[in-house]
Amino acid sequence: MKHTFYSNGKLLITGEYLVLDGAKAFALPTKFGQNLIVEKGSNQFIHWKSYDSDNSLWFEESISFFDITKPEKTEIETVKTTLISILHEAYLLKPDFTTQSEGYNITTTLTFPKKWGLGTSSTLINNIAQWLQIDAFVLLKNSFGGSGYDIACAQNNSPILFSLEQGKPIVEKVIFKPEFAENLYFVYLNKKQSSKVAIASYYNNKNNHLAQNIALNDAITQAVIHATTLKSFAIAIEKHEVALSNILEMKTVKEALFPDFNGIVKSLGAWGGDFVLVVSKENPKEYFIAKGYETIIPYDQMIV
Fold first, then answer.
1. Helices 120-132 & 79-93, crossing angle to 10 degrees?
2. Distance between alpha carbon 222 and the CA centroid of its chain, in Å?
3. 3-class SS at 59?
4. How would you label 156-170 residue by residue, b for 16+ Cβ within 10 Å and e otherwise?
5. Residue 203 pLDDT greater than 80, yes or no
6. Residue 300 Cα distances to 66, 137, 152, 186, angstroms
7. pLDDT tens digits, residue range 30-64?
8. Where are the alpha helices (DSSP H) in 110-169?
């Protein structure tokens, strides 16, 4: 018995934070993702191994079926307790997975460096859901929380428009094949940002103009998707960055880190970390390397 599952990583282009309140988010699945291999085990244990993209083992643990069915309550969050929490929620959705086998040997392998923040958790949750044939959106909601756009990316091989209607995920495939793709780059900011912390910050700063902010976001999102020129795309992206800056009461990433850059820099997902989208007429590699940011990935090498 050997079953292999795979899920795509994600990048959120528009709608960050506001997607939690019903705004439309434009998201792109990445060519990078995560595999999960399930094999028969023994002794009512799951023996778990997780490998980073360089094949280094970053997590290994044996977890008993008992721990999954009746996890101990703990306030100390570790990789093990987080994994048990996900598996427990999966068990509640499909209790017979602990009786269908004597045990499991499970191996996960990322195809991107774990620190990049392209969806280590969402690809894991979607892979577990595929394995157990349960609803990945429900598993996410019951374990990590969040909008679910990352699960939608995990499941799709094309750009998507994502929104929540009365808490239910709505996923629409869209065509986005910009002729100016050669002018788009993704730059890693050398630090991973916690989505949980960022979401909490958003709720603390959310002001009273929510309907107005969502309407603005949705209009900008349509402008981004339908942009036919580099200029119109850049204008829309910059408008979105300014709007979020006002909502979050934070400097834009360009103001904070790259004020002298001749082009547009937009935060993606959680502000303050992970990747940014760079719009530039010239190849910006030298500029960012000089600033200490060495991971610069052209659009076509990143996006499915």
1. 30
2. 21
3. strand
4. beebbbbbbeeeebe
5. no
6. 46, 28, 20, 10
7. 999 999 999 999 999 999 999 999 999 999 999 99
8. 120-132, 136-143, 149-155
Cα dihedral 242, 271, 230, 304 in deg (nearest 10):
-150
Q: What is the mean pLDDT of the chain?
A: 94
Which residue bears the tokens 């970053």? 58
Structure tokens belonging to residue 270: 């959680």
pLDDT tens, residue by residue, 93-123: 999 999 999 999 999 999 999 999 999 999 9
Residue with tokens 């910059």: 238
pLDDT for 202 beyond 80: no
The pLDDT of residue 198:
65
Which residues have CB under 8 Å from 30's CB, separation 6+? 8, 9, 10, 11, 112, 118, 119, 153, 302, 303, 304
Sign of CA pseudo-dihedral 237, 114, 202, 24:
positive
d(CA 181, CA 167): 33
